Amino acid sequence: MISSPAPSQQGPLVGLFVTCLVDLFRPSIGFAAIKLLEAGGARVEVPRAQTCCGQPAYNSGDRKDAAAIARQVVETFERFDYVVAPSGSCAGMLRLHYPRLLDDDPEYAERAAALAAKSFELTSFLVGVLGVGQVDAAYAGRVTYHDSCSSLRELHVREAPRRLLASVDGLSLIELGESEVCCGFGGAFSVKHPEISGAILDAKVRDILGTGATTVLAGDLGCLMHIAGRLARERAIVEARHVAEVLAGMTEDPAIAAPRQRR
Questions:
Q1: Among 67, 102, 155, 254, whose Cα sits 20 to 30 Å from the Cα of 143?
Q2: What pLDDT does residue 98 have?
């Protein structure tokens, strides 16, 4: 599906970290990620033993449980050449926070650092490691792209998704006026501070609607579900999709919507 490079049995062995939200709410993103990685020349496995990255516990200050989860993730994924997640927040957890979380653990400190060094967000891995420059996919219409906080600020992922989207036949990317501003989700933040979260989300939705785009894309499902929920309540005719679905040409499924809108 991807034009360059060709798939190879000698390509790097990638462990796909599916993420909780993708597994529970949008498995098609995982299948799209596999398609993109394999077409880019990687061999992909999805370990059945994987669980959460530990981010909810970590963000809530529960370092003990977060560390226990991190050790399990390290044990599950350290045999792979690379670990790739279709999520900036989960990839950021593995890449940046595991080494800090386990730095005083004599058994896991070095192993966590080694895992961190080979953990990547999906689009940055496709472009920066596999050398993918374009995809063979089509998506008609005007789209806009939301940069998630974790992808942008923790992992500095900005150009990779846009470079790949530029090669999608029929797609026209209209940039948001404030593409780098938070959507208000922030994991537990939207639960702890719903009024602030809602105000931030309102501004994000106004920005999206102002572009005239018919689809909003992002690389983090949490952001997309948050945005899609408000778009549905506003009865806005704007689809919300993960960037991997568009890049892989897998847009047969209905657009993403918050769980309570699915009835």
A1: 155
A2: 98
What single letter denotes the amino acid at residue 101?
A: L
Asked if 41 contacts 3 with a C-beta cutoff of 8 angstroms, the reply is no
Distances (CA, A) of 115 to 169, 215, 263: 36, 35, 40
Tally Cβ neighbours within 10 Å of residue 120.
24
The reported pLDDT for the residue numbered 224 is: 93
H or E, element range at 23: helix 20-25
What 8-state DSSP symbol labels residue 106?
T
The C-alpha atoms of residue 54 and residue 98 are separated, in whole angstroms, by 9
**Separation between Cα atoms, residue 239 and residue 257, nearest integer Å:** 9
User: Rounded to the nearest 10 degrees, how much is the dihedral formed by the CA atoms of 237, 240, 244, 245?
Assistant: -50
- Residue 176: pLDDT over 90: yes
Each residue's pLDDT tens digit, 181-231? 888 776 666 666 667 877 888 899 999 999 999 999 999 999 999 899 899
Is the separation of the CB atoms in 122 and 36 below 8 Å? yes
Phi, psi of 45, deg, nearest 5: -130, 150
Q: Which of 61-70, 175-184, 211-220 has the lowest mean pLDDT?
A: 175-184
CATH number belonging to domain 138-261: 3.40.50.11810
| Domains of the chain by residue range | 13-128, 138-261
